[in-house]
Amino acid sequence: MLIVARGLSKRYGRDWVLRGLDFQLEKGEAVALLGPNGAGKTTLLRVLAGLVRPTSGSLEVRGRVGLLSNPPAFYRHFSGLENLLYALRMEGRRTDAQQVRAALERMGLPPHKPLLGYSSGMRKRLALARLGLLNPEIWLLDEPETALDAEGRGLLEEMVQAARLRGGVVIATHDRGWLPQVNRVVQL
Ligand SMILES: Nc1ncnc2c1ncn2[C@@H]1O[C@H](COP(=O)(O)OP(=O)(O)OP(=O)(O)O)[C@@H](O)[C@H]1O
């Protein structure tokens, strides 16, 4: 089991966003997290990623976690290449500029353009390249398809299937097109 969460609750002020939620992720699994706007999908991903502390409940996470936020965050004045090298360095990982350039090329991204000049789809592609390079066991994806064109969606789906085989994937989404590609649906 990669994630075992029991009785997770999260409250912001007086508002309960999650209440007594049990959630598990097995190795080899891809899970779609569905629910209307404001249901708590992003909050759950942030709790699972360790960025938000639950108000109550227990959480065990076995493996490295990577979160693809929507929209993804980058340093605006750094280029795509610099952003990826920086992300690897921050994680204490070996930085191989050739490997990073190859990842950018696979995603069809210009290495030297500052992020200020990237479109939202290009940013999403860069975030995917970053996650692929960091290569955690657990991929937490928040509306990953947003802003991607058909080719970008194809690259994303390939990466999701590869990540699922190596570990596990949770996809928070409104896009029911994911349903044939996941093992399980969790409705919030
Ligand atoms: N930092 C915060 N402070 C206060 N309230 C918050 C905070 N983050 C989220 N919320 C509230 O928690 C609720 C759930 O938000 P969340 O973003 O998790 O929903 P979601 O299911 O991801 O929604 P969407 O489908 O619109 O992306 C919303 O009512 C939101 O306003």
From TrEMBL:
TM regions (residue ranges): none
Membrane among keywords: no
GO molecular function terms listed in the Swiss-Prot or TrEMBL record: ATP binding; ATP hydrolysis activity
Pfam families linked: ABC_tran
Domain ABC transporter: 3-188
Key word Mitochondrion present: no
Keywords, comma-separated and alphabetical: ATP-binding, Hydrolase, Nucleotide-binding, Transport
EC number(s) given by UniProt: 3.6.3.-
Name of the top EC class for this enzyme: hydrolase
Superkingdom of origin organism: Bacteria
InterPro entries found in the cross-reference section: AAA+_ATPase, ABC_transporter-like_ATP-bd, ABC_Transporter_VariousFunc, P-loop_NTPase
Protein name: Putative ABC transporter ATP-binding protein YxlF
Organism: Meiothermus luteus
